[in-house]
Structure formats: C-alpha cells, structure tokens
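Let us work through a complete example step by step.
Step 1: write down the sequence.
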Amino acid sequence: MSNFSLILICLGVALLMLLAYAATRPNEFAVERRLRIAASADKLWPLISELRAFNRWNPYERKDPLIKGNYTGAAGGVGSRYEWESKEVGIGSMEITHQQPGRAVQMSLNFVTPFKAHNQVEFALKPTADGATEVSWRMHGPANFISKLMGVFINMDKMCGRDFEAGLQNLRQLAEVK
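Step 2: predict the structure and record it as tokens.
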C-alpha cells in the first residue's frame, strides 16, 4: 500500500469521524443573554414591541447602514412584520407572533440567506424591586445536520451572543437617557 493510499484512508476515516460526531450534536440550539437596565418595563416595552423602534437598537440593523428594509402590518403588536435585504446580514424577515404587554414579545425569525433558518426569538421583561428591569433576549430553533456540522467549527452561542450583548447595550443607552 502506497503512502498516498494510506493518507487517503486516514483522511476518509477522519471525515467519517467528523460526520459521526456532528450527527450526535443536539437537534436544537439556543442563545440567550440578559441585562439589567435602569428603566421601567413600561419605558422599555415600546422599544421592543414596535419593530421600527426595535431597529433603532438592533445590532444587525446597525451592521449595514445600506440595509433595505420594509415594514408591513400594524406599527406594533402581533402581525407586525419587517423584511430586510443586506449584503452584510443577508435576506430575511421577522414577525411579532405573540406578546404579553409590558412582559414579553415573541417573534418568528426567518432567514433566506446566507443560509435558510426558521427560528424563534423571545424578549422577556422582568421588573426588579428597585425600578429597573432585567431584559432577556433569547433565540432558539432547530439544528439540521448542516447546522450541527457548522457548530463543530463555529460556536453559535459566542457568535450570536456577542451581537445580543451589543444589542442589549444599545437598548440600555436608549432607555437610560433621562
């Protein structure tokens, strides 16, 4: 057996082991970040429940000043929808699917590019005893085999988590203005 054949066999075995490992990864993913903001839930609510206001602090919107966006439906609340197209952040849409006024907003988040994905986003507002609010931003969804394979090399929690942290800091800056 030649050295070249041995190398090919080793590479094949390594590839099979990589694919087998990827297949064992979870079928769902979740990313969540929280931040205490010195503002009431009532002050924060419109910044989250209205998509135009949300995009004032949305870190993905800030990544591309040339993003092309289109709002449809009501200004806020269930059925509000935003679609975007961008060289930096891809093509996709989000729609508010459920809300509990002053407490929670749930959105459907769909990407067309750079890869297809159908995820759920949840914002929760938890008032604290001192008048501040703990805001959590959570995204979760299915992980198909390609996502699992990518997850071997790319840490989704770190990648999206940094953006969520930046977004929550942006929200804090808007809300804590006196």
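Step 3: interpret the result. The CA atoms of residues 71 and 82 lie 5 Å apart.
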